[in-house]
Amino acid sequence: MNPIISVANLSKTYASGLHALRRINLDIRRGEIFALLGPNGAGKTTLIGIICGIVNPTGGTVTVDGHDIVRDYRAARSLIGLVPQELTTDAFETVWATVSFSRGLWGKRADRDHIAGVLKALSLWDKRDSKIFTLSGGTKRRVLIAKALSHEPQILFLDEPTAGVDVELRKDMWGIVRSLRAAGVTIILTTHYIEEAEQMADRIGVINKGELILVEEKAELMRKLGKKQMTLHLHAKLDAVPAALAAHRLTLAGDGTELVYTYDTQAGRTGITALLHDLGAAGIGFRDLNTTQSSLEDIFVDLVRRGQ
Amino acid sequence: MNFRAAGAIYGFEMARTGRTLMQSIISPVISTSLYFVVFGGAIGSRITEIEGVSYGAFIVPGLVMMMLLTQSTANASFGIYLPKFVGSIYELLSAPISYVEIVLGYVGAAATKSIILGLIILATAGLFVPLRVAHPVWMIAFLVLTAVTFSLFGFIIGIWADGFEKLQVIPLLVITPLTFLGGSFYSVSVLPPIWQTISLFNPVLYLISGFRWSFYGIADVGVGVSLAMTVLFMALCLAGVWWIFRTGYRLKQ
Ligand SMILES: Nc1ncnc2c1ncn2[C@@H]1O[C@H](COP(=O)(O)OP(=O)(O)OP(=O)(O)O)[C@@H](O)[C@H]1O
Ligand SMILES: [Mg+2]
């Protein structure tokens, strides 16, 4: 299936001379949840800004469902909803007015039922007549989401939707994201809470200093880069890793009561059999063992560090 | 054309106006009344008629123009500056609309408001002095043209401004002086010849002159020239708006 968003050789140099994006190539698949990860200042918001028409690209092209975002901007933008990173809303309008206004801007016929539905789904219904400046930060975030959903977008950009948001709203939000995805909406999100990306995303892209350093299926990424650790809980305390086991590059933990073995799930041989054999030979007994897999967060931190 | 979008912006802006209706109407009405008490009543009674028009009546078109220019500029500049200031401009930029719809919405709403205001001030003036309108169609035409032109001008100011001071500076330092010197309260024919010539470089003179002609049939410059100058200024503003959206000036990085 052809991608819903296609970014080719996209570059952005700000007037300050800062290269915010360097020749980005990226295809977003129809109906997926794509998580864009990267440290502060990596260029995530800039990339989203260009696709949505807020920032002018310096070079390269973007098409949205086959429509060039510059030449055919009306068709491209009519498909897109954007929830910006900053809490930027009118202050003196009511929630209802500002959300209805968004729908009008997208040229959609007024639809009170749809707006009411969106407000209810975001627990904003009771606040519909409140002026926005009287709302808390998290509620303003909901209003921004409601504005983006008011015009029934096919593609939704969520730029750090969970920054400064409590657990309850976060749960609501991911519930909404799941149901949007089920309805066929493509979702591109950025977040600094990597466990969220791990839970939600189908694919993950990592951007660092304006370069897209990785795009991968989440499952594949976890498999490829995932390291496993096996921890052995020993019967007797050790002062050091015995010389006989040096080849296995073990580390001692838990005040000498645990031995930790790190191995690569990708490797043909994990070396576990050999390790257990050598342990028996050295007379080291253990009462329990458990294994853990590295999280996306570990993978991410590792990737970005390597990029420095 | 995305007429729904233009309509949404227009409606949104008119609603914003509606919330501040009392202050935006009462203050111009009070200040106009003060002008009449001072100029029309106290001083005007000692001034002889100008070309057969009593002084009180003579200043009405100039006063209306003055309100029209300052209010149109202020309304339109504030209307577009506000979303820039709070950041909600992101939505206008990411919506499937062209600058035509944005301008129709914002400038249309600002012009509507100042036209209503102009008519209210005319009605207020009618309470103080006997008004007659010789060419009503032209009167309305000048009213609408000027409101639209200066709303466009205000729109440009609102995009150019990067602080509230700049928003105030143009109406205060440019428009008000030009209106005072453009013959709001006198006919330029009373000036020494050299000042008459200098006055001809003041674009506001042409607006006031044309507008006054539509009331009393008297003018400092030919009405055709007035009309041409108004249209010229409007064309300049349109070109400015076109350039802003083509380059993304102060809107897009
Ligand atoms: N208007 C601007 N003018 C100049 N530089 C800018 C502008 N906006 C962003 N930048 C710079 O471009 C780079 C990328 O910024 P961007 O906002 O895209 O990062 P980000 O990945 O979204 O970061 P964060 O996680 O902090 O939101 C940063 O170095 C930033 O300082
Ligand atoms: Mg960002």
What features would you describe in this structure?
The complex is a heterodimer of chains A (308) and B (253). Chain A has 308 residues and is an alpha/beta fold. Chain A folds into two domains: 5-222, P-loop containing nucleotide triphosphate hydrolases (Rossmann fold), CATH 3.40.50.300; 227-307, Alpha-Beta Plaits, CATH 3.30.70. Chain A is built from ten helices and 14 strands. Chain A has helices at residues 44-52, 73-78, 95-105, 112-121, 137-149, 167-182, 194-200, 218-225, 272-281, 296-307, and strands spanning 5-13, 19-28, 33-37, 59-64, 67-68, 80-83, 155-159, 186-190, 203-208, 211-217, 227-234, 251-253, 258-264, 286-293. In chain A, the strands form three sheets. Chain A has a six-stranded mixed sheet, with helices on both faces. Chain A is elongated and about 75 Å long. Chain A starts with a strand and ends with a helix. The mean pLDDT of chain A is 90. Chain B is an all-alpha fold and 253 residues long. Chain B has one domain (3-247). Chain B has ten helices and no strands. The relative contact order of chain B is 0.15. At the A-B interface, helix 2 and helix 3 of A face helix 1, helix 3 and helix 4 of B. The structure holds adenosine-5'-triphosphate and magnesium ion. Residues 44-45, 85, 159 of chain A line the site of magnesium ion.
